[in-house]
Design brief:
Blueprint (H helix, E strand, L loop, with lengths): L8 H9 L10 H32 L6 H21 L11 H30 L4 H29 L17
């Protein structure tokens, strides 16, 4: 059952079912497929948030100020940045001590899912009849902050999985594992 402000049980279950089982990353193909599946699931939920924001901006364009439209554009741009990070290609290769890396990845994944739930809730609040001015004064900034954190955590996952050019260097502020 979907409510106007919370992620549905079926959405949450589907996302959690896609969480990788890092101990099964015994072959490059298995690791790549598990990563693709989880990243697609995360991306799908983020796309839904972005689509909802754009739909609201389109349907209520006469009611939104130019500042509010700019804020929506900024939120959608942040979602786009996350997509680029989720789209990182390469061979999955856990860095450092595998058990420690797996533990870190599992913690990151859990936090990402919680942020997705909160982001979805924040976007749905805008649709739920809360006056837009109130949403833009409080919820929009929370959503922007959460999307920034999500983006940073996605890049941290990329590092731990050995994906992308950033992974060739030690993650900023982090010691080698």
């Amino acid at each position: 059952m979907r409510t106007s402000a919370r992620i549905s049980f079926s959405e949450m279950t589907a996302l959690m079912e896609k969480m990788p089982r890092y101990t099964s990353y015994r072959t490059d193909d298995r690791a790549a497929e598990a990563e693709r599946s989880f990243r697609r699931a995360l991306g799908t939920m983020l796309k839904e948030c972005g689509d909802r924001l754009l739909t609201i901006a389109e349907k209520q364009s006469q009611l939104l100020s130019s500042e509010q439209e700019v804020k929506i554009d900024g939120l959608v741009d942040r979602i786009g940045m996350i997509f680029r990070r989720l789209d990182r290609e390469g061979d999955v290769c856990l860095v450092g001590h595998c058990d420690n890396t797996i533990h870190e990845l599992e913690e990151l994944d859990t936090r990402l899912i919680l942020i997705i739930e909160k982001a979805t809730e924040l976007v749905r609040k805008l649709e739920s009849g809360i006056p837009a001015n109130i949403w833009f004064k409080t919820e929009a900034d929370l959503l922007g902050r959460d999307l920034s954190i999500f983006s940073e955590m996605t890049e941290e996952r990329n590092y731990l999985l050995g994906l992308g050019w950033e992974s060739e260097f030690t993650w900023p502020g982090r010691e080698s594992l």
